Amino acid sequence: MLVVKIGGGKGIELGPVVDEFAEIVRDGERAVLVHGGSHETDVLSAALGHPATTITSPSGHVSRRTDRRTLEIFCMAYCGKVNKQIVEMLRARGVDAVGLSGLDGGIWRASRKGAIRSVEDGRTVIIRDDLSGRVESVDDAFVRVLMEAGKTVVLTPPAVTEDGVAVNVDADRAAAMTAAALGADELLLLSNVSGVLRDVGDPGSLIESSREGGVEAIRAAAAGRMKNKVLAAEEACRGGVSRVVIGSAGGERAIAAARGGAGTVVWADDSLEEAPGEVAR
Amino acid sequence: MLVVKIGGGKGIELGPVVDEFAEIVRDGERAVLVHGGSHETDVLSAALGHPATTITSPSGHVSRRTDRRTLEIFCMAYCGKVNKQIVEMLRARGVDAVGLSGLDGGIWRASRKGAIRSVEDGRTVIIRDDLSGRVESVDDAFVRVLMEAGKTVVLTPPAVTEDGVAVNVDADRAAAMTAAALGADELLLLSNVSGVLRDVGDPGSLIESSREGGVEAIRAAAAGRMKNKVLAAEEACRGGVSRVVIGSAGGERAIAAARGGAGTVVWADDSLEEAPGEVAR
């Protein structure tokens, strides 16, 4: 079982990577596709006169400010545009794809963030109405029902709280939870970056694997949005995924390249500091 | 089994009708919700600088011109905005809803319209690249899988061709095909009109039922978009649905009102001119 997450950042060409994913499914491998849509959301937000804004936490973590109107636009971009585009591409390539958000069937159950501290012009303010959260559990039984019906599942945010509120969640971490819940061997986090760089300005400084200096070295080097990917990789590994590759979605054979180790490979057995004697399944 | 179709026209307030639908599901009745999104598509199209345009056939039938960009906007409005909004509302009301388009899992298999004749400024032109079609079959087995998993299915266009092209289809007729395929007893086509009027300018001229003058009288009175609803009602009846109510989505108890006969009721046994001795199941 393989979970592939394709980022929604600027400049990612879906054609080749969806082609390759379709090939894998047609070859009989069980695979789930998770995708983002942040660039499309930014473009749509700007066009609709509700430009994207961000929240910067006191520790420097940056996330999308998600008010009700932003969530609506978010759903249009993630669920309406990108999800249906990928489903159409897969169907045209002979794959019986079903596109769902984490809201549908409650596949991604999330907790909603309460009061969020945001640093604005040097002052810390509290935001209480943000519609964002974190995936706490995955209804893998429902995903399995779909797979047993012969469907290939294409998943995207939002997720949903226990009381039925749709929330914006990080798609990398949602993909990690999904991979763990489905007992996947491998998770690929593909985006418009080639992996974790020691020096963000030097493409030659790629950290190839957690074998080099453990997950700590990768975590220490990750900056900005890459922090979430490393966190996602660690969560997947703790959940039983053998290895996670943070790599590029670009090029003709991006999935094969990542599976072959191109990018930054996080091994489960390097990421279990809490239980050093335990062997990941 | 009940199929409710809620129109996507201007002025339809979703809250009360979704409340009522949720109540029906919580009471244990098996029901599928189908919805449109034409007004939201028009609003989004205008905001994005790609205003909606229509095709008028030589016989006067009006439909949405669906080029590639329109289909993208259509998916954002139908699948991204309205579908996820309804799913969120249902989940908040305790219903385990799953929102899907007819593209997902190939639920609505369509034929694509070939060359379309369009009357423009008095001249007839041929449009060959329109992404519109007609639902030819419904994958009711997959819908049943979802229902057996305890899910309430919320369906919306587009549909998909055999070779994987997403196409804009009429949601009333898609709902009719769905009701027939699922063996529903009843189909409600609820929208911002109260039913079929003998005189479109006189709200008092409602045709209450096909008992009055047969389906012919209803068909003869239907104008504009109402023609599709009558066609849908006839198709549902021919497919085995006992009765179809064309009624209003407005008011506090729109579903109960329609089930009680408010609107125009089309009975299967009045619509089987081709086989007058046959009794609809």
CATH top level of chain A is Alpha Beta
Number of strands of chain A: 15
Helix content of chain A: 25-40%
Largest interface: A-B, 42 and 42 residues
Number of structurally distinct domains of chain A: 1
What share of residues are in beta strands of chain A? 15-25%
Helices and strands of chain A, in N-to-C order? EHEHEEHEEEEEHEEEHEHHEHE
Radius of gyration of chain A: 18 Å
Poorly predicted tracts of residues of chain A: 275-281
Alpha-beta classification of chain A: alpha/beta
Alpha-carbon distance between the two ends of chain A: 14 Å
Oligomer: homodimer
CATH topology of chain A: Carbamate kinase
Instruction: Characterize the biggest β-sheet of chain A.
Output: 7 strands, mixed
Notes on the protein architecture:
- The structure is a homodimer of 281-residue chains.
- A 7-stranded mixed β-sheet of chain A has the order 5-10-2-1-13-14-15, sandwiched between helices. A 4-stranded mixed β-sheet of chain A has the order 9-6-11-12.
- The first copy, chain A, has one domain (2-270): Carbamate kinase.
- Helices cover 35% and strands 24% of the residues of chain A.
- The radius of gyration of chain A is 18 Å and the shape is globular.
- Chain A has helices at residues 14-26, 38-47, 68-92, 140-148, 171-181, 210-221, 226-238, 254-259; strands at residues 2-6, 31-35, 54-56, 62-64, 97-101, 108-112, 116-120, 123-127, 133-138, 152-156, 159-161, 166-167, 186-191, 243-248, 264-267.
- Chain A contains 8 helices and 15 strands.
- The first copy, chain A, starts with a strand and ends in a 14-residue tail after the last strand.
- In chain A, strand 3 (54-56) and strand 4 form a beta hairpin.
- Chain A is of the alpha/beta class and 281 residues long.
- The longest helix of chain A is centred in the N-terminal third of the chain and has 25 residues, at 68-92.
- Chain A binds chain B through residues 44, 47-49, 72, 75-81, 83-85, 87-88, 90-94, 96-101, 103-106, 142, 145, 149, 151, 158, 160, 163-166, and chain B through 44, 47-49, 72, 75-81, 83-85, 87-88, 90-94, 96-101, 103-106, 142, 145, 149, 151, 158, 160, 163-166.
